Amino acid sequence: MSAAEVLVIFLSVALAIFLALAIVLTIFLIIIAKKIKRIAETAESSVQGFAALIANVQRAVAPAMVTRVVTDLVNRFTGGRKSKKGDE
Question: Residue 49: in which H helix or E strand, if any?
């Protein structure tokens, strides 16, 4: 065997090893990409649920805030006095 044949065999083996490693790494990257996609979908679903919760809280709190503002305005215009039956 000449040096050229040994070099061809060595390079062929190295190429085969790197090709196998590339295939394995590609498979792992595909698996990781699928897991990341699943995590992103779960996070998106959680955020949407949280947004819906916040919307419900805002709908519930809005009337209470209006009532408080109206009460504050009434107290300002009446001088902050509360009328009692004995005070006339």
Answer: helix 3-77
